[in-house]
């Protein structure tokens, strides 16, 4: 009796269970429909997002291609800089070298903004609207009060900037080379000046490599928002982790080569609008034709805004 009853119950249970499968399947379909009905709504928050930096129609195909590639390289190094910090945090020696004991959130944030932030209006153009490209040694400039979200790239850039593949080449190293030797870091610098990107918070709190290193030990709260620090960390992390794995090209700072540089950058910072002027001052470029005039050009450019 007991056996029969439990069998009946079991049967009843499965009889209940199997019809139950049908409604459940039916309801699965319903859920799926709900989800797909919702997906236009869930992507709408992001509508109009701009994932690539706009390049103005004043750039011809050749120029646009080079700027686009350079910006792609900027994204490559900032993504890696962010990923390096996400992986190693403040235990990374490279992190400690550039950011001291500062917490990791801020540099991760700046790098992420550039990598993944909306790029609408952050325009690169090639027509020389402010006439600055005519000045010797100018490879580009932020348009400042004339158009705060715009950057002009002058023809000299196509001659002197190097691709990321050349990182650690030409005798360049992080300690002694100029950050604007490479498209990647030059354009990173330019982007950080755009209010939409750097929010007026990323600024020049250090003047050169030596003071970047010093700042990390003394005022690391400024290191995490220093333009040069953000460039140098990104270059060094990429060089060490990717370009020449485990080795990189940190270099050993030699004061002599940069005393001249810091003299010019002191002039630059006193003019408040920093000149990325060192356009082609660094030793790796000394052999270049444009650099014959660059020392003089760099000095004269210092008083002018943001080459
Ligand atoms: C690293 O961060 C932790 C907190 O997450 C902190 O306790 C530690 O002092 C930091 N180390 C350095 C070297 O800044
Ligand atoms: C980091 O170091 C500086 C200077 O050495 C010190 O003043 C500051 O309190 C430290 N900050 C943290 C978060 O440990
Ligand atoms: C803004 O435009 C004026 C007038 O054309 C020009 O003199 C000035 O140098 C420009 N500013 C920048 C930062 O290029
Ligand atoms: C684009 O402009 C550059 C000057 O920046 C010029 O040298 C080049 O020949 C132009 N390219 C084309 C395809 O017109």
From TrEMBL:
Disordered: annotated span: 264-292
GO CC aspect terms: cell surface; extracellular region; fungal-type cell wall
Swiss-Prot/TrEMBL keywords: Glycoprotein, Signal
Gene Ontology terms for molecular function: integrin binding; metallopeptidase activity; zinc ion binding
Residues of the signal peptide: 1-17
Xref: Pfam families: HRXXH
Residues covered by the Putative peptidase domain: 9-252
Family under the similarity heading: Belongs to the ZPS1 family.
Name of the protein: Prenylated Rab acceptor protein 1
Source organism of this protein record: Didymosphaeria variabile
